[in-house]
Amino acid sequence: MQATFQSAVQDEAALRAALQQADIVPSLLVLTHLTGDFDLLEQAAPYIAGGWNYQESVPQALRETAQEQLIRVLKDYAGRDRPLPALPPHDVLQRMMSASVGSNVPSEYVPMFVEELRLGERDTRAFQGDATPSYDARETLQVVIVGAGIAGICAGVRLKQAGIPFVILERNAKPGGTWYENHYPGCGVDTPNHFYSFSFCPNENWSRYFCSQDEIWAYLNAVVDKFGLDEHIQYGVEVNGARYNEERAVWEVEKQNADGQEDLVCNCLITAVGHNIPSTPSITGLENFGGQVVHTARWDHTVELAGKRVAVIGTGASGMQVGPAVVDSVEKLTVFQRTPHWAMGNPNYHKAVSEGQLWALNNIPLFGQWHRFLIFWAASDMVHEHLHVDPTWDQPALSLNAQNHKLRETIIEYMRKELDGDEELLRKCTPSYPPYGKRLLRDNHWFRMLRKPNVELVTDAISHISHDGIVTKSGDEHPADVLVMATGFSAAKLLWPMEIVGTHGRSIRSIWGDDDPRAYKGMSVPGFPNLFVLAGPNTALSHGGSAVFQIECQVAYTLRAIQAMIENGYASIEVRADIHDAYNNQIDQMHQGMVWMHPGVTSWYKNKNNRVTMTSPWRLVDFWRITREFDETEYICAQPARTQSAQQARQANCVMEA
After folding, report:
1. Which domain holds residue 360?
2. What is the pLDDT of residues 531-576, one digit of tens each?
3. What is the DSSP letter of 634?
4. Phi-psi region of 366 (alpha: psi -120 to 50; beta: other; left: phi over 0)
5. What is the pTM of this model?
6. What is the DSSP string of 439-507?
7. Are residues 145 and 262 in the same domain?
8. I need a labelling partner for 503 at 20 to 30 A (CA). Which of 162, 193, 430, 455 fits?
């Protein structure tokens, strides 16, 4: 960090030029953090209306004063070789955070942000066990991770840091998961990527605020390289299934590659497979189509779209990205919409990060951490209150409460402007359900695209596909040379097609069925000892936040569970059925009063019985809190010599004593 102070001031002209372009609010936070002086930050607070950098209007004179003071402070730290000051007290941090976003940041968020921003002396999400005497036990524990996407990479990094042997089995030829598999035109992230990155490996060199697929994938590859994960990854390996051996308290994992089939044995099994199985709707006549068919999740770049009549089926996240990306090269773009989505613009969505901002992120101590805080706050729990039903609200068919209705009207006005006042198009684009009933999408110039002369939005239901195009139920035929299936993933069928068999020979599919997965904290399932499901049931975010944050919380919890096994000599840990059931009943109760249960909402979040299985009802701070500690009393913990006793404890639904 001392070198960073030196790099910040070694070229004062570069520092001054950077600060003129860099965001002023993180600069003010750095200044306050280094000096403890709130004067300029609190002078600026009335001009700040949120965490996004476009939500401030700090006067130029105040900006210049803050920049000059920050330069003097940085020079003082560098000149006197001063270390960073101690972590400010809780109340000071809360005061800083609240002033910087123009609203109160509740006290409960402060420790979460200290951890997320790595402001403390140690990484509290890493393995916390002592090096002795448990280190030998660590070396004898074997872990298999299925999948080398974001979740698998995160788990691999943390296990490697802990010195626990592991292998990652990846079906693809490269790491990256969804960011390796999805590379359709326009593919990119709709979470701000300074937050869509690991807290233990932030990237200060993103070229844009919302990056494209290739940059996200390059980042994940860089993480794999930095932490030496390649030596632990077996590529081109499909996991067909895994069976728990009760007598030995191990998982027997059946893997297959080009050379044939082989079994691996491990103590702990971590599934990190995400929701990456493409969903293709069953449409009559699809097999008779005379042109080419391509799915966004399995894009074929040999399919030529230029000058062709292209039909896009689906208007969700991938449809909203691919459409604007290809519209100017095709002859005709026909978009088939079953259900419209709420989508809102963000001024940063197509914006490049300025050179000055990049310089500040890379050279000014604490600038990156406070920048991450601001984006985290702006893109996470601020809207959670919009998701709850107000039973006294007088327009329940349209919205849930006053805040939700205000957002609805704001988005409609935005759409009207983008559609240039075309009321018929606005009618077609306006959902019948409240905002956040489905994921609120980022507008990728989608509405402007719909106004183009070569675009047609079709809202009639599809009847069938003919040799030459798509026929709707009204009888109209829409000619097409290429069909683009922007129809998402089979997300509800978690862990499919793997056959996971736990105790007593019961498969997880026989318990979950095709669409009713349940797990304690999204990770642990009774009857499946030492199995940890990452990105499991009821962990997906819809109101905001970052999937990376959720994954880090789950991996931290998994590490604490493994730590308990190592330190206490447990051969197995298995969540108690009563604990699991009570948690899932709580999840169901929480969802009852939330937007996804609105009668106008149908989505992949819910199963055929109208139960919400995918989305998390928690605020991010709540999920962080419930995954911070591993409570052994909630689990059946068995030592090797007492496996039979563990089985008896399971039957009695009680905890096995160590």
Report:
1. 2-123+355-381
2. 999 999 999 998 889 999 999 999 999 999 999 999 999 999 999 9
3. G
4. left
5. 0.94
6. PPEE-SSHHHHHTSTTEEEE-SPEEEE-SSEEEETTS-EEE-SEEEE---B-TTSTTTT-EEE-GGG-B
7. yes
8. 162
